[in-house]
Design goal:
Distance between the termini: 32 Å
Oligomer: single chain
Strand content: 5-15%
Shape: globular
Length: about 375
């Protein structure tokens, strides 16, 4: 959903005007990829009980959403899935509801606490929220929110880091920091553990002391990533996609496109943090295509398989072996062009998401041109 569409709908609601950080709130709402035609009849500004964070509670289509500017909470409930079959009253402080036996309460806004400016001496990089230092924490949070919402996606996340490790390794310091930030909470027998990792993710930037601590655990994360290099992955997202298409997505569950977006963003930060090497743009494009079509990975593609270009073996990694059937036609000689058309048709059947659809179509057309140039013996830019 586009930022302009959100603005047009939200500006008509008095609650949005009460938000002191409107641009950051819009950034958070865009993560949901809500359909452009989803009506937003009402909203209220306040705090989600127990979270200590101010945010916007709104109805968008068939969903109830609480969104606080990152790193605050982001919650989505199906209105039909609420206990009692719906909300007991209008959106206002004091409103209480429950879903799946878990109770929630919307409270009056808490006093805003101004953020202390980052000191270049205490925070790594001193680059502010727009720099690479901030993207490390933001990318880790975004992927972790998806994994916590659906732990069946955790094996896919390990497959993702294995594929990136196989391509670029983890020698670059920012990659090691991001890998530790994201995966240490899911390694209970190493590192600080889930509770001990919370302080690392609380602020927008990682301090020098936190950075040193995270780097000390990288060997454990790297060894586990390397061990998964030849394991198939994609089963979690494939199952999620099937659930969503069958209309069986659990209440509060994460959508397939939101999961795919968080995975793609994480991979992009890892690969580009050390600068773009030869072939790595092709690798990211191929990886993004595989993430949006996880059934191919679920059928047995290895995490260490090349996506779009030969991989650069990670330092100390075993030689890459192609997965069974690599380079061959699909099942029973299926036409790849027909498979692409079917995938694009499924994408077009989804509501809204016009910018994403345009980007996927542009990418598929670009790949057709590249393939034609290769077939004619011409150089591919």
């Amino acid at each position: 959903m586009t930022r302009d569409t959100w603005k047009r709908q939200l500006k008509s609601l008095p609650a949005f005007a009460a938000c002191p950080v409107q641009s950051r709130l819009l950034d958070r709402l865009e993560e949901l990829m809500v359909a452009e035609d989803a009506p937003i009849p009402e909203a209220a500004w306040g705090s989600l009980g127990g979270s200590g964070a101010n945010g916007l509670l709104l109805i968008a289509g068939a969903n109830l959403i609480f969104a606080a500017p990152a790193p605050g909470p982001l919650r989505v409930w199906s209105l039909r899935g609420l206990d009692g079959g719906g909300l007991p009253g209008p959106l206002a402080p004091g409103l209480a509801w429950s879903a799946g036996g878990t109770a929630w309460r919307f409270e009056a806004p808490r006093p805003e606490v101004p953020e202390a400016p980052a000191s270049p001496n205490s925070v790594y990089g001193g680059s502010g929220e727009g720099g690479l230092a901030a993207s490390l924490v933001a990318s880790a949070r975004r992927l972790m929110e998806v994994l916590v919402a659906d732990l069946d996606l955790l094996p896919d996340a390990w497959g993702l880091i294995a594929a990136c490790y196989d391509r670029v390794g983890l020698r670059e310091e920012d990659r090691r920091v991001l890998a530790s930030l994201t995966f240490l909470p899911f390694i209970p027998d190493a590192g600080p553990g889930p509770e001990g990792m919370k302080p690392f993710l609380r602020n927008a930037l990682v301090s020098k002391e936190e950075r040193i601590a995270l780097l000390s655990y990288t060997v454990e994360v790297e060894s586990r990533a390397a061990a998964r290099r030849l394991a198939p992955w994609g089963m979690g997202r494939s199952a999620l996609q099937a659930q969503e298409e069958a209309g069986k997505l659990p209440v509060g569950g994460v959508s397939f496109l939101r999961a795919a977006a968080s995975v793609s963003q994480w991979a992009a930060v890892v690969v580009t943090s050390g600068g773009m090497g030869p072939g790595e743009a092709d690798f990211l494009r191929g990886l993004s295509t595989a993430i949006l079509a996880p059934e191919g990975l679920a059928r047995g593609a290895a995490a260490g398989a090349a996506f779009g270009a030969p991989p650069s073996a990670a330092p100390g990694a075993a030689p890459v072996t192609a997965p069974p059937g690599a380079g061959k036609a699909g099942p029973e000689g299926a036409d790849p062009e027909a498979g692409l058309k079917a995938a694009l048709a499924k994408l077009e059947a989804l509501t809204g998401m016009k910018p994403i659809k345009e980007q996927v179509h542009s990418l598929s057309n670009l790949m057709r041109v590249h393939k034609k140039r290769v077939d004619l013996g011409m150089k591919v830019p």
